[in-house]
Amino acid sequence: MTVSSPAGSFPYKLVATDLDGTLLRPDDTVSARTREALAAVTAAGAAHIVVTGRAVPWTRHILADLDYQGLAVCGQGSQVYHAGENRLLTSVTLDRRLAGLAVAKIEAEVGPLYLAASRDGLDGAVVVAPGYRVHEGPLPNVMIDTPADLWADPINKVYLQHPELSDDALAATAREVVGDLVGVTMAGPGIVELLPLGLSKATGLSLAARRLGAKAADTIAFGDMPNDIPMFAWAAHGVAMANAHDELKAVADEITTSNEDDGIAAVLERFLTA
To answer: Do 17 and 52 meet the contact criterion of CB atoms below 8 Å apart?
Structure first.
């Protein structure tokens, strides 16, 4: 599948959107206005691609609601998923011994951490060790009795929480202590993650874009958290939501209205009518 060049009515071939805090409203739905704007840009010849920190099992129900049949970048760039075929095209795992070493080094600096991990595969569960605060909602997870069970199967990433440190402080410390071993990013409130070194939304998006015949210069990207910074650096135009983290706003090409106020639609409509 290759995207065609828009016929003068929309300047980009690829529209990359984060999910939480960006495409999704606070109630985890996509507004009718945003759906219509995305339909209009695809009718103009562009492609919409979801780029999310969620692994495939936590993303699939949203894609189904959107009747989304194309490629999606999941798991912070670790998975390129073909929604129409329910098939993983690429999957990158985090070395479990290296992850365990990274956790030990961080704990030596800040004390005990609360941990969870995202297992690899189309149906990989998020496994949650004691103490880790799970966000309320329908997302599936499996409680385990001991952190050692985190390493029982291949994983894409590890989630960290600290009983006292803020997300920003924990991410900064982790980056300083183990940034040469693993990637460290913050994907949302209470969501600090360890990833394979060098992996980001940008690496997954670039792989998916190549399959679609699109380039960075053809791409507009929308996001709200620091994990979207590499995607903004890769894309031609990065748009931060009004509710975005200050770190992302600092590198954005523009700031739109919030995810609750159809921020994606406002930008797409402007380009469609320019």
So the answer is: no
